Amino acid sequence: MKLDELYLTARLAKLGLDEKEAEKLSIEVGRMLEYFSVMEKVDVTGFDATVQTHLQENITRSDVVSSIDVTEKMISNAPQAENGFIIIPNVL
What we know:
By secondary structure, this protein is mainly alpha-helical. Helices cover 42% and strands 4% of the residues. Strand 1 and strand 2 form a beta hairpin.
């Protein structure tokens, strides 16, 4: 990766790189790109694509309807409430 491209990418990512850091990063990115080009040459014909390494099912719980009403408890824990609503400060 060229240094000017690296500086542009770093600026867009809001990274403050000095010249020494940019040169080091440029070398490391270059090494990664070289390795990717080696990986592109590997023949993977006949291999299934790996989406996930652990063959397991999603661990989920079933939805259960409950009649527990926690509204009053939530409102009682709020710093400010009025007429059954929690009052929050304006952020803009």
